[in-house]
């Protein structure tokens, strides 16, 4: 069978050129600028800069506040990723078994996908309003006075809940597609070999969903680290103070509010290196356990 190909090199390069230009302008160029800025102490109004070498990195790594934010980011990312995947998987398994009204049921589970992260954060602020928020009243029945923006743990819980609620529909769509792609013959054979529903799921269904799960794991970690910025910004109401915040939001606070351009650039470089290392770890170690056939 003859393979289709290009007769010249110029045509494929020309087709790739728009995407390469976008990557260069919006990724490589800002990366180089951030790396360069991280070695300078810059005037916030652009009147000059002083080369300080690695001092910005030394100040960050020795900062107790930065370590606290980094620790919270790890906890936040783990919880958001785990619960987003777990809840979506449960809903997808249940939706796959629905026979009557399946389309309506799936649509109701997926509509949250259209909600933007800042809107999800605003909904969380409404639900946890100290005066008339329904979730605040719910916790009040158990004797807990819920105070978003004042209590560290309360604010963190609201951020995690809103982030999970926003991401579940995306995972649900992929998990449901993965479940529906499992051949009926495989399901019937599993039903004969194992009468236990939980046993069939963990021995047959879950391994077949491993490629989808691995893809969603990477997507959800990226989401929890970067795309939750709008939720965090809305929940803390622009007044971070002692409230929890992620590393991405701290870059924004220090750079655009604290006018510490060199320090925020160093933070972005450290975050980029950490995400790169995490991605390499996922593909080198976790993907080896994934079977695509």
Which blocks of ≥5 consecutive residues have pLDDT under 50?
none
Number of strands: 2
Strand proportion, as a percent range, falls in under 5%
* Principal-axes shape call: globular
Query: Cα distance, first to last residue?
Result: 24 Å
Main beta sheet = 2 strands, antiparallel
CA gyration radius, whole angstroms: 23 Å
Structure annotation, total helices: 13
Question: Mean of residue pLDDT?
Answer: 82
Order of helices and strands: HEEHHHHHHHHHHHH
Q: Could you list some keywords that capture this structure?
A:
293 residues, mainly alpha, two-stranded antiparallel sheet, 71% helix, 2% strand
Which helices and strands occur, and which strands form pairs?
Layout: H1 10-37, E1 40-42, E2 49-51, H2 55-61, H3 64-96, H4 102-110, H5 117-127, H6 134-140, H7 152-180, H8 184-193, H9 197-208, H10 210-227, H11 229-235, H12 247-257, H13 261-286
Antiparallel strand pairs: 1-2
3D structure, described in words:
The chain has 293 residues and is mainly alpha-helical. Helix content is 71%, strand content 2%. The protein is built from 13 helices and 2 strands; from the N terminus they run αββαααααααααααα. Strands 1-2 form a two-stranded antiparallel ribbon. Helix 5 (117-127) packs across helix 7 and helix 7 (152-180) packs antiparallel against helix 10 (210-227). It is globular and about 75 Å long. The two termini are 24 Å apart.
